[in-house]
Design brief:
Distance between the termini: 18 Å
CATH topology: Rossmann fold
Structural class: alpha/beta
Helix content: 25-40%
CATH class: Alpha Beta
Strand order of the largest sheet: 3-2-4-5-1-8-9
Largest sheet: 7 strands, mixed
Number of helices: 8
Keywords: Hydrolase, Protease, Serine protease
Pfam families: Peptidase_S51 (PF03575)
CATH superfamily: Class I glutamine amidotransferase (GATase) domain
Radius of gyration: 16 Å
Low-confidence stretches: none
Strand content: 15-25%
Shape: globular
Protein name: Peptidase
Number of domains: 1
Mean pLDDT: 95
InterPro entries: Class_I_gatase-like (IPR029062), Peptidase_S51 (IPR005320)
GO molecular function, one term: serine-type peptidase activity
């Protein structure tokens, strides 16, 4: 299993993403965490993520989970064409709901655990890999899920890592008071957690887990 989970894009560890993937090639960009945003803003987020991936030598293209609602087999076929998936930030609850609607919450773990796919995600794209989204509601509004996705918010993550993740720690994008409240939520629930500055990343390569 190969995971690259960060607070903001590559952090200071683009080299480790490249090492994890091997030779840069096609990458599926999933931007569904931004589905509750205005269309123009969402389109801008896709463009802003594609450019740095291209600079690293990748060939990125968007894979929109809304095109695969209720068709997990079609999603599996589409993802099988890519060695890497890149999942950007936004609203973690919206992303989790779109994973559920498309079957990505089943397909992605299967492909990642089999070694067929490397998963890279930042902010919401990292948080959705944890066991629970408890505490994330301090930053991302679960109420955006119903009007955006037509289903109730899900509070379970995919559980490919066994820690909660708190991104944007000690960062201009973060809120120190809310971050401290999130930590209190994790500790009350007896959840292990990682804090990540915008320079840091979690790298999982087989049995090896590193917080960089």
């Amino acid at each position: 299993m190969r995971l690259f989970l960060s607070s903001y894009r590559f952090g200071q560890h683009a080299d480790r993403l490249l090492a994890l993937v091997g030779k840069p090639g096609p990458v599926a960009v999933i931007a569904n965490a931004a589905d509750s945003w205005p269309r123009s803003a969402r389109e801008s987020t896709v463009t802003s993520d594609i450019a740095p991936l291209r600079r690293l030598g990748f060939t990125p293209s968007e894979l929109d989970l809304r095109d695969f609602v209720g068709t997990p087999d079609a999603l599996r076929t589409a993802l099988s064409k890519f060695p890497l998936v890149w999942v950007r930030g936004g609203n973690t609850f919206v992303l989790r709901a779109q994973f559920a609607r498309s079957g990505a919450d089943v397909v992605l773990p299967e492909l990642v655990k089999s070694g067929a796919l490397t998963y890279a995600g930042y902010s919401a794209g990292a948080c959705v890999m944890t066991p629970s989204l408890q505490g994330i509601e301090l930053f991302d509004d679960p109420a955006e899920v119903a009007p955006t996705c037509g289903i109730d918010a899900r509070w379970d993550g995919l559980g490919l890592v066994d820690h909660a993740i708190l991104p944007h720690w000690d960062s201009p994008m973060g809120d120190s008071a809310l971050s401290q409240r999130a930590i209190e939520c994790f500790e009350i629930a007896e959840m292990s957690y990682w804090t990540l500055t915008d320079d840091q990343a979690i790298v999982v390569d087989g049995e090896r887990v590193e917080r960089l």
